[in-house]
Please model this.
Amino acid sequence: MPQVHLDTIPIWDAYKKESECPLCALEDACEKQFLDVALGGAMMEPDTRVRTNERGFCADHFRKLYAMENKLSLALMTHTHFKDVIASGAKAAEPLKRALEAERKKNPVARAAGDVTRLSPVHKALLALCDHLTMRSGSCFICERMESTMARYVETICYLYKKDAAFRQAFAASKGVCLRHYPLLLRGAGRYLGGAAQLDFLSALLELQEKNLTRVEQDLEWFTLKFDYRNRDKPWGQSRDAVERTLNKLQGRVIPSADDDKPQTP
Ligand SMILES: [Zn+2]
Ligand SMILES: [Zn+2]
Model:
């Protein structure tokens, strides 16, 4: 039993969509929510403000924030983040500045002999500055929140699988998951399930993936064969959106699919 309350409703909602990956549906929903949080009222909350200043956003999420309505919120938030980046960058550049100064003070002969090698103070300081800059541009407030929310959803899926026969049925009848989310479920089973529940979940998952990856692959094949004039009059079957579904099955949420807007059946 989990120690904390797990919200099973979003999981059920995602499975009712009957999409190519319920985890993508969950990820999509929580991304939208965190984008709103970042630019909405919560942006003014000190806690959120501190975290957005410190973590910033990845290119993808900056692009998505920029596409939203509220340019003033984005400007205010980015301004404080930018000042923070500049100040911490200046601090991180200090050792390199000092090393350059020391290097400059050496006489030209000694400098030519020493050069800037991998072990020199200049080289070490520039690597440290690179690490700092990479660390700062590599963090994202939204990616990090999504990651922890998805981990929680995986835990809930495992919990439901163990406790709820109706969910086991829905899981077995689903179209599996994308290949980006597949390892998340595998690791989840290793972490949150044990004994027979773990064996059952893993066997069901492997079978589900094999069956559904093959299904999408065959849909894609038929899509290509439809371009052969001999097949021109044959029915498309499930293959009209096979390219989108294949890209989404391989990487998850590459192309927004019709599934995303499909109303949930009660
Ligand atoms: Zn997915
Ligand atoms: Zn991000």
Summary: The first helix runs from residue 9 to 16. Confidence is low (pLDDT under 50) at residues 262-266. The CA atoms of residues 60 and 111 lie 44 Å apart.
